[in-house]
């Protein structure tokens, strides 16, 4: 059987191998900046290499791993055609989960899935990831860029990543260390971070019909600039705390909100009592609530409300912890305390109202 149809090819199917190779060349300089002394080799191998002999200084090293994405925040980056910030969000979402148990992030890999490879765009995404790794103190040892025509539109993409860290077994943080009388210290979020964007987009873009170029007086900048504000990366700050003062637990405030995420590191027999009057959330949270008429309970279980990380500390650690965080440029404050609970243990509750 003969036809006049041209022979099939990968390019005709929508995959551009040459564009992918160009993207790799463009991202090399950024990946080279996100290394540690233990990094082995460079970009282009089938696997990223990390010298594990560094672990010999540990008595009983526990490896910790975490993986995550950025969610629908990437839709904002795509609409604004700004792609070098969501990579920092990706690193934050992964490494700040690792540090909760006290683990130092060692290395990270990324996965970039696109509908069409635009080399400069892919390089910008990896640039953001590399910059995030530098801020987190971990190495970017490898990754994958996949082109999926037909599954994603030409302008669409998604990113994900995984990281590995290490913690000494007897330094592992978590619920078994938390005691009544401990104090909960909050670390301020830089904004929405990377959770709740489906709600935020629904309220501000779809219901209210706001454009990303809209100047919002409460923000002092455009809506798009506010929504693309990168997630604060806390890993080095948290590690500095563990090396300076006694810390019992951390909680990374992501999907589920402050109370639910703090509850994940509380044992039975205690509960956290948190006071809303100790901080005022950034205007973006008030705007989303007011424009969408979103109930406070819904906001608090969807968004971080201005608290990105919390530390649970013995009372004598509080003052030096606050001083250290201040020196490192992380706004922090006493958020509440841990109390004994015969019933409803292992939970966190919020009381009071935010300052007007």
Q: Which descriptors would you attach to this protein?
A:
single chain, 356 residues, alpha+beta, 60s Ribosomal Protein L30, Chain: A, Phosphoribosyl-aminoimidazole Synthetase, Chain A, domain 2, 4-stranded mixed β-sheet
Description:
This protein is α+β, with helices and mostly antiparallel strands and 356 residues long. The protein folds into two domains: 15-168, 60s Ribosomal Protein L30, Chain: A (2-Layer Sandwich), CATH 3.30.1330; 175-351, PurM-like C-terminal domain (Phosphoribosyl-aminoimidazole Synthetase, Chain A, domain 2, Alpha-Beta Complex). The chain is 33% helix and 24% strand. It is built from eleven helices and 14 strands. The strands form four sheets. A six-stranded mixed sheet has the order 10-12-7-13-11-14. A four-stranded mixed sheet has the order 3-6-4-5, covered by helices on one side. A two-stranded antiparallel ribbon has the order 1-2. α1 (17-33) packs parallel to α4 (119-136), α3 runs parallel beside α4 (119-136) and α8 packs across α10 (296-302). The longest helix is centred in the middle third of the chain and has 18 residues, at 119-136. The model has no long low-confidence stretch (mean pLDDT 91).
